[in-house]
Write a structure and sequence with these properties.
Helix content of chain A: over 70%
Radius of gyration of chain A: 27 Å
Strand order of the largest sheet of chain A: 1-2
Radius of gyration of chain B: 25 Å
Oligomer: heterodimer
Distance between the termini of chain A: 48 Å
Largest sheet of chain B: none
Number of helices of chain B: 15
Strand content of chain B: under 5%
Number of helices of chain A: 16
Largest interface: A-B, 97 and 94 residues
CATH topology of one domain in chain A: MetI-like fold
Number of domains of chain B: 2
Number of strands of chain A: 2
Distance between the termini of chain B: 50 Å
Strand content of chain A: under 5%
CATH class of one domain in chain A: Mainly Alpha
Number of strands of chain B: 0
CATH class of the largest domain in chain B: Mainly Alpha
CATH superfamily of the largest domain in chain B: MetI-like
Largest sheet of chain A: 2 strands, antiparallel
Order of helices and strands of chain A: HHHEEHHHHHHHHHHHHH
CATH superfamily of one domain in chain A: MetI-like
Order of helices and strands of chain B: HHHHHHHHHHHHHHH
Shape of chain B: flat
CATH architecture of one domain in chain A: Orthogonal Bundle
CATH architecture of the largest domain in chain B: Orthogonal Bundle
Chain lengths: 317, 283
């Protein structure tokens, strides 16, 4: 504080001396530029150290076999060739793709419907909003432990309910197909964030749109189809992209509940990366797998931008 | 008249249907929570009973003591809180600085750097986990809190920079101009005028930082090895490995991990909503 005080008195007294004197004498534009870069310097440094440097390291790693203990060993394209024969990689790709292409659309539709529901004007709606949102703030680890118990074959909640309504028990975590279904059910429980984003979008739609439709005699379905969904397209687009990016990186549930099993039925790509890097210490190969994940996410984001992004309705554009 | 009556009846019916659906889904969404708490208060033999008792008799409060002392959860808690405290300082301090720079100052290259901020926002973090781990291990940072805290001091994450930037842009420039005429420099304007005005946005960032660190599993999992350094999340995960079928104790420990999050949510709901709406971040 005292330093700034004396600086101020410098300016007041018209003297441009002292430590920052040279800075004071600069033209205002340059001064603002230097200040601006000072303000954003943490981000720039962080970007260089924790983004560019790792990215370059990841490129280097692709061509080496390295267990962190001995010297890195140059293997050329050996890591890439391993991909072809690594059946677990193809399995993880399959599992992750099924999970993503089922859970993302389902989650999108479910969260959109929830948002429509909690957008009704009735007393006590805030309670429902809270209840629907609450699951999404449960920490992933706690959620995984809880769902491991819910999916328990003998005494788990889900089978208790199924039994209660006269159906047979499902071996949720013992059969590969069902285990993946279990993961998807679990993901649907926590769509709260997407729902809130949808709700904010819905509340931003001007009433006059619907009033105009009323005059034209449009029913509920037509209003949804021709007003709500088109106007909401940027929000749907946003949630779709975020959903894809999140789903491709799913890890905790597969790691803690099933540990990739049964028969690698929940061996998600990130779990495969984790094992190669931190259990088998194949840093080079793990880096290759990471690049593949990056490539997949980039390609799908691009496709969504390309084919969906251009149809998105933007107001005032 | 008859048509109008019919329309009103239909409206009322529609309303009833909506409420019925709302209630049905609410029950489904709440069931896991009820199951969680109910299981956490059961005796070991009550857990394996069919049909299950929803309200355990007797209520076994001791499970919480047993679970939280079976493993040194007080040490995990201390570690988590230390990491959270450091991340709060780091994120609130540096994200607001960067955000202010992007929002209120004009300089060549600003838009370029902001585009990079957005770029890192959609970059999947998992992709850089392996090389980052190698860099940190070269620095001798493995099994310390450094990998989980130091990076936060460099802007605190693109989402928070983005969120705070949007907020700073809504503050009228006249306030800053007035201060400038009074001879304040840019840092004083940021510190004395902008930060106090940005309090609601800072609270939002603070809450999400808390949740991010409290819930983070992947980071502590790969960087922390010795049990003395575990966070609550890793501690709970390792607990599951030890007590595979003591569900009542696992549920007690999980409930204990969920409760702080729920309390914060109830005290700060509107900040939550704001944060999600602005960035799409999950809680």
């Amino acid at each position: 504080m005292t330093a700034t005080k004396s600086l101020q008195s410098d300016v007041m007294g018209g003297r441009s001396s002292g430590l920052f004197g040279w800075f004071r004498r600069l033209p205002p534009r340059q001064r603002e530029a230097i200040t601006g870069y000072l303000f954003i310097s943490p981000f720039i440094l962080g970007f260089l150290f924790f983004f560019v440097l790792p990215a370059l390291t990841a490129v280097y790693l692709v061509f080496f076999r390295w267990n962190l203990i001995s010297e890195p060993q140059f293997v050329g394209l050996g890591n890439l060739r391993n991909l072809v024969t690594d059946s677990l990689f193809w399995q993880s790709l399959k599992v992750t793709s099924i999970y993503t292409f089922v859970s993302v659309p389902l989650g999108l539709i479910f969260s959109f419907l929830l948002a429509l529901l909690i957008n009704t004007k009735i007393r006590g709606i805030a309670v429902f909003r809270t209840i629907y949102y609450l699951p999404s703030i449960v920490p992933a680890v706690a959620s995984a432990v809880l769902w491991a118990w819910i999916f328990n074959t003998e005494f788990g909640l889900l089978n208790v309910v199924l039994k209660g309504i006269g159906l047979t028990r499902v071996k949720w975590l013992q059969e590969p197909g069902w285990a993946l279904v279990a993961m998807i059910i679990m993901s649907l429980w926590s769509v709260g964030a997407a729902m809130i984003v949808f709700l904010a979008g819905l509340q931003g739609i001007p009433d006059i749109y619907y009033e105009a439709a009323d005059i034209d005699g449009a029913g509920r379905w037509h209003k949804l189809r021709y007003i709500t969904i088109p106007v909401m397209s940027p929000v749907i687009f946003f949630n779709l992209i975020m959903g894809l990016i999140g789903a491709f990186q799913v890890f905790t549930a597969g790691f803690l509940i099933t540990n990739g099993g049964p028969q690698n039925g929940t061996l998600f790509l990130v779990l495969h990366i984790y094992r190669n890097a931190f259990e088998y210490l194949n840093m080079g190969y793990a880096a290759v797998l990471s690049w593949i994940l990056f490539g997949i996410i980039t390609v799908f984001s691009f496709l969504v931008f390309r084919y969906y992004g251009r149809q998105v309705y933007y107001e005032n554009v | 008249m008859a048509i109008r009556q019919k329309y009103l009846n239909f409206e009322r019916l529609w309303r009833y249907i909506t409420v019925a659906i709302l209630v049905a889904i609410a029950i489904v969404m709440l069931m896991p929570f009820v199951w969680l708490v109910s299981s956490s208060l059961k005796q070991q033999h009550q857990i394996f009973q069919f049909p299950p008792q929803w309200i355990p008799d007797p209520v076994q409060w001791d499970n919480y003591v047993t679970a939280l002392t079976y493993k040194p959860f007080h040490i995990y808690l201390r570690n988590s809180l230390l990491i959270i405290a450091l991340n709060e300082i780091a994120t609130l301090g540096t994200a607001s600085m960067c955000a202010y720079g992007f929002a209120r100052l004009r300089f060549p290259g600003r838009d370029f750097w902001f585009a990079i901020v957005i770029g890192t926002m959609i970059m999947p973090y998992v992709v850089l986990v392996v090389p980052t781990f190698i860099i940190f291990s070269r620095l001798g940072w493995i099994d310390t809190f450094l990998p989980l805290t130091v990076p936060q001091f460099f802007g605190g994450g693109a989402f928070y920079i983005f969120l705070l930037r949007q907020f700073f842009r809504t503050i009228p420039e006249e306030l800053a101009d007035a201060a400038r005429i009074d001879g304040a420099n840019e840092f004083e304007i940021f510190w004395r005028i902008m930060l106090p005005l940005a309090k609601p946005a800072l609270v939002t960032v603070g809450i999400f930082t808390f949740l991010g660190s409290w819930n983070d599993f992947f980071g502590p999992l790969i960087y922390l090895n010795s049990p003395d350094n575990f966070t609550v999340a890793v501690g709970l995960a390792s607990f599951r490995g030890v007590l595979a079928t003591r569900w009542e104790l696992l549920m007690a420990a999980s409930t204990a991990m969920v409760i702080p999050v729920i309390i914060i949510f109830f005290f700060a709901q509107r900040y939550f909503i704001r944060g999600i709406v602005m960035t799409g971040l999950k809680g």
